[in-house]
Design goal:
124 residues; mainly beta; seven-stranded mixed sheet; four-stranded antiparallel sheet
Length: 124
């Protein structure tokens, strides 16, 4: 089982990026994105159950970031708009084969598979 994250890069403040996370090996019940800036703890960004249209969004991402799934490609996307310098971090995708309740989606311990991370840098 492997999660391959991609799409990071350097963008100016106010710009957009779309991150991708391709899953191979099996399907999952829930997927999420987290980020970690230097010297800070890993922060929840957004998550969704694989077969539900509902999403759960962290405070820092509300109104700017969205998550989507392409079931045919077994890929999850993180669309980030109106980026700010404080969004600079390594972004990680995560997935779980469990059946988490919604309130557990922001908890990193919910996920049993993690991608390798992709760097996002937002310049001011």
């Amino acid at each position: 089982v492997q999660l391959q994250a991609s799409g990071g890069g350097l963008v100016q403040a106010g710009g957009s990026l779309r991150l991708s996370c391709a899953a191979s090996g099996r399907t999952f019940n829930a997927v999420g994105w987290f980020r970690q800036a230097p010297g800070k703890e890993r922060e929840f960004v957004i998550a969704a159950r694989w077969n539900s249209p509902s999403t759960y969004t962290g405070d820092s991402a509300k109104g700017r970031f969205t998550i989507s799934r392409d079931k045919d490609k077994n890929t999850v996307y993180l669309q980030m708009n109106s980026l700010k310098p404080e969004d600079t971090a390594v972004y990680y995708c995560a997935a779980t084969t469990g059946r988490p309740i919604v309130s557990s989606l922001p908890n990193p311990a919910t996920y049993n598979y993690w991608g390798q991370g992709t760097q996002v840098t937002v310049s001011s």
